[in-house]
Specification:
With 384 residues, the protein is an all-alpha fold. The protein contains 17 helices and no strands.
Length: 384
């Protein structure tokens, strides 16, 4: 994709002053200079790039006066909705680069997402280029995981998911396989891929803008790939768990472990029970969560581990299938009760964990009672 020439970015205050002068000059002649018809005719050359950067910096400068801020906002909205699709795409890709200030990157990624969600059909052949770009961006377009900004991770994941909802699998058959390959390149890429998978699952099952026929197609394709997705989550969680339980874990590893468990919990609700039972059993994910349940590193991870086991036995999945798997959950509860007996129930810092643990124990007891009722109420061979 051809990009506009690189420009030198001025400081925030200088850019804000320049933009203020531009706004003042334009508004002196006529109040209509910022009307849609005037501002929205774009051929995104170097001058427009500089002007947009100045508008963004004016928006983010707390000293900007209301008139300038309103004009800067209108300027940015004009790009999103009325710039030529090819020019807007080129600009968005350029602005998303990790070499730019965060306000520029934020708008660049936001512009890509806007094009995908609202102007996708206008892009024509550029759709293929943008699909290739997001794969490259996830693979090598961001900063390292411990320094990258949260919104960059979440927004790039949302873009990948939004493209997949529109293109996968018919016009993007290798999307999931490419994600799995990217995840194997390092912790930064694994984090981005997991967030993309999480965004995809959420979109497929919760986005009200997806028509039901299309949603059915996406669900069928996702069900086929759930084993590999569970494998990815387990492998990454095993690495984080080993580091955290050995006492050498870092803050990024802790944060990533939380993302992994949250993604796992969200996906489990929609996975077929037979696939869930077989895959998690083979991977021995239960053992990882038992270890995290007993860790003292983070109450958040202990709570998420409780929720993992509760989901297995609560029967809260859409098909109300039987609980999975009893032995592993019973083992986890036994270990957790032992820890609970050693802890201070009045310790405010552990309240969340104690609450999650009690909820888990209640879910296990309820499931066991229901199972016993089924066993005792089922007719025996002699009765039949």
């Amino acid at each position: 994709m051809r990009l506009p020439p690189r420009s030198t970015l001025s400081s925030s205050s200088a850019a804000s002053d320049v933009y203020k002068r531009q706004v003042s000059t334009q508004s002196t002649g006529s109040q209509q200079q910022h009307s849609a018809g005037t501002v929205l005719r774009w051929h995104l050359m170097a001058q427009e790039w500089n002007q947009l950067v100045q508008a963004l910096q004016a928006l983010h400068d707390p000293r900007t006066d209301p008139q300038t801020r309103a004009a800067a906002h209108q300027h940015c909205e004009a790009i999103k909705w009325h710039a030529a699709p090819a020019s807007a795409a080129e600009l968005a890709v350029k602005m998303s680069g990790s070499e730019h200030p965060q306000e520029v990157r934020h708008f660049g990624l936001h512009l890509v997402e806007h094009l995908v969600k609202y102007r996708w059909k206008e892009l024509g052949e550029l759709q293929l280029q943008l699909k290739s770009w997001i794969q490259q961006y996830l693979a090598s377009g961001t900063l390292q995981n411990n320094t990258e900004l949260h919104f960059v991770k979440e927004k790039s994941a949302a873009i990948g998911a939004a493209m997949a909802v529109r293109e996968w699998p018919q016009r993007w058959p290798g999307f999931i396989e490419t994600l799995m390959e990217i995840a194997g390149r390092g912790p930064t890429q694994a984090d981005l891929v997991v967030r993309t998978v999480r965004a995809l699952v959420s979109s497929i099952f919760h986005d009200s803008n997806i028509v039901e026929r299309r949603r059915k197609e996406l669900k069928e394709s996702l069900n086929q790939h759930f084993p590999s997705i569970l494998g990815l989550l387990h492998t990454q969680l095993a690495g984080c768990s080993e580091a955290l339980l050995s006492g050498i874990g870092t803050e990024p590893e802790f944060a990533f472990a939380k993302v992994l468990l949250q993604t796992l919990l969200e996906a489990m609700v929609f996975i077929r029970p037979d696939t869930l039972s077989d895959t998690l059993g083979q991977l021995r994910t239960h053992e990882l969560c038992i270890g995290l349940l007993g860790s003292r590193y983070s109450h958040d991870l202990r709570v998420l581990s409780c929720e993992y086991f509760e989901l297995l036995v609560s029967g809260s999945r859409p098909d109300k299938s039987e609980m999975l798997p009893h032995a592993a959950v019973a083992q986890a509860c036994t270990a957790a009760v032992g820890q609970l007996s050693e802890s201070d129930l009045l310790d405010q810092d552990q309240y969340g964990f104690h609450k999650a643990l009690c909820s888990l124990l209640c879910a296990l007891g309820k499931a066991q009672l229901l199972l016993n009722c089924l066993l005792y109420t089922s007719p025996s061979p002699r009765d039949s």
